[in-house]
Amino acid sequence: MSPPSEAKLREENDALRALLRRERRARDYRSDVQTLLVETAEKIDPFGVAGVIARGFTDIVQAGWVVVAFLSADDPNTMDFVFGPTMPADVARDWKNAPLSTDVPMAAVLRGDLAAAELPDPSGFDRWPLFAAEADRADFASFYCLPIPSSDGTLPTAVIGLAWPDAHEIDDAERTLLADIISASAPAFERARRGAADRQVAETLQNWLLPPAISEHDHLDVATLYVPGRDELAVGGDWYDVVELGDFSSAFVIGDVVGHNVRAAAEMGQVRHVLASSLLSTSGDPALSLQQTDDYFTRRSPDTMATALVMVVDAAAGSVTIASAGHLPPILTDPSTASRLMRTEVGPPIGTGLGDYVSVVRELPAGALLVAYTDGVVERRDEVIDDSLRDLCADIDREVGAQLGRGVTDFASAAVVSLLEQRARSEGADDDAAAIVLRLRHPNG
Amino acid sequence: MITRTLRHGASAIATLQPMAEAPERLTVQTNDELVFFVAGELDAHTAPELAGALAGVSNDADVVLDFTDLAFMDSSGLRVIISANGTLSEGGGSLVLRSPGRTVQRLLSVSGLEDHISVVDPT
User: Fold this and answer.
1) Of these four, A153, A163, A196, A337, which has the most CB atoms within 10 Å of its CB?
2) Residue B65, class by beta-carbon neighbours within 10 Å (0-12 exposed, 13-18 middle, 19+ buried)?
3) Interface test with B, best of A232, A305, A327, A378 (most B CBs within 10 A)
4) Best CA proximity match to A310, nearest among A333, A326, A334, A332
5) What one-character-per-residue DSSP string does A142-211 give?
6) Alpha-carbon distance values, A264 to A236, A255, A272, A294 (Å)
7) Which residues in chain A are closer than 8 Å to B117, comparing Cβ atoms?
8) Chain A residues closer than 8 Å to B12 by CB
């Protein structure tokens, strides 16, 4: 048996070294993937996760260019792109987003038309003219597009594109590595997408449920407040509303649906609209409107319960007609006297079916403030409600007194609203809160 | 005497952050005369416990909710009471609140429910 030739030895040595190198690389990969996992877990939106993945793939796989694409949270027919650091800036700028229908491999995989796209050399690029042009611009000669699967096995949550400057066939080791990274990052992606969707729903609900900016009134200063609660979705059941009835007459509503979640917010939208509609159809009859709304919800949605205060201001007569469905009493602050609770006839909450509301007419002196609010600005767990309301009146008096002391009166309604906002945001106040502050202007100004 | 204890302490937050055994915030114990002894705090988190306890009661029953040891109640608790009151009075039964404290009485009156919910032995 002849001794192995030197060439043969060198070949075996090289093979051994390559093997060692691959193993070292595999070990590094594992720790890199671990790092990637930790980093993606900290990201709460798809852009953050995609950024980590794009950077991570660029480092770990040593691909020339990396791009991650996913469906836009704003529009399901659009895909957003996030690029790794090596992608030429002009390409990245032109491809921030694109219609999902675009004829490029990444869109086809994201749509589910293709399981994956594997283009190890430019011969496969011709099928995709738009993509071929971009490959030319970015100067890459091979491209792989792989899906990041969703847990329910339907369409991918995202797709990842890897490109190299030369023809590049990914080998089994690379394929295993890619599969590992992809399955490790999939949950982070899914979590982020779900979180983004939840926040989107909450924000949309909130914006849609509260009235747009209150229009200017000829005879009244109107200031309003809504402070979301501190739960994870920041929506709640408190609301305010304004219904214009005539030149001198407007209805103001403050209310609170029992419960603190998206369901309470959705119910609030319904109660708000039914009550506003009743106010219009009864030409601003507070008691009758509450009665109709109570009837409606008792029949249609017996689980809904809400308190509400309706105040119809007659600016010409200087009066306000009030009815209450189990709501906290409004506060009247006349600069010449201390704040006091306005006496109202309190009926049961809306949705109880117990009905029986009574409207009372009270004088609304010009210059006085009428403050209506929800318990988010008063509720303190360990106090009797009367003590809390007395505190609130004292706070308002202090605020108005300070204003008057500086010779300011016009700011009073806005100042009282900021006082209420401070209370609603104070330590220990987790509830959402709403308020509306009215001030009848003096006839001469 | 049938004694049933329901407990509830975990809030939505607690499911995200594992914590030590949550304190018992509400207990509902009932005897065979349909007196429900409600103790602790009745709020948005614990109200479903009371609702659950009352769900098994027949519509024509005469139910007493004993609030002697109820430390706190908010509008979510009120909703359970109103709902039970409605179901029972429609079905020919009745609901009485026994020994509510001043805060619960005030909650009933500011909510316009004084004339609609029966109260005995207020404290």
Assistant:
1) A163
2) buried
3) A305
4) A326
5) EEEEEEE--TTSSS-SEEEEEEESS-----HHHHHHHHHHHHHHHHHHHHHHHHHHHHHHHHHHHHHHS-
6) 6, 12, 12, 16
7) none
8) 231-232
- The DSSP code for A218 is S
Chain B touched by A305 (CB under 8 Å): yes
Q: Which two tokens stand for residue A167?
A: 């023809």
Is A256 in contact with B75 (Cβ distance < 8 A)? yes
What topology does CATH give the domain A210-440?
A: Phosphatase 2c; domain 1 (3.60.40)
Record: fold of A6-199? Beta-Lactamase (3.30.450)
- CATH 3.30.450.40 domain residues, chain A: 6-199
Give pLDDT tens digits for A312-357: 999 999 999 999 999 999 999 987 788 999 999 999 999 999 988 9
Distance from CA of A314 to the nearest CA of B (A): 26
CA distance A133 to A136: 5
Q: Give the residue on A whose Cα is nearest the Cα of B72.
A: A381
Which residues on chain B are in Cβ contact (under 8 Å) with A328? Answer: 110
Sequence-ordered list of residues with C-beta below 8 angstroms from that of A9, at least 6 positions apart, any chain: none
**A374 contacts A255 by C-beta, under 8 angstroms:** yes
DSSP codes of every residue in B33-61: T-EEEEEEEESTTTHHHHHHHHHTS-TT-
pLDDT tens by residue, B20-61: 444 578 999 988 889 999 999 998 889 999 999 999 899 999
The one-letter code for the residue type at A108 is A
Instruction: Tell me the angle at which helices B47-55 and B75-91 cross, rounded to the nearest 10 degrees.
Output: 10
Q: What is the DSSP string of A252-294?
A: EEEEEESS-SHHHHHHHHHHHHHHHHHHHHTTS-HHHHHHHHH
pTM of the model: 0.65
ipTM of the complex: 0.78
Q: What are phi and psi of A307, to 5 degrees?
A: -100, 150
Q: Which CATH number fits domain B28-120: 3.30.750.24, 3.10.530.10, 3.40.50.1820, 1.10.150.320?
A: 3.30.750.24
Residues of B in contact with A381 (CB under 8 A): 72
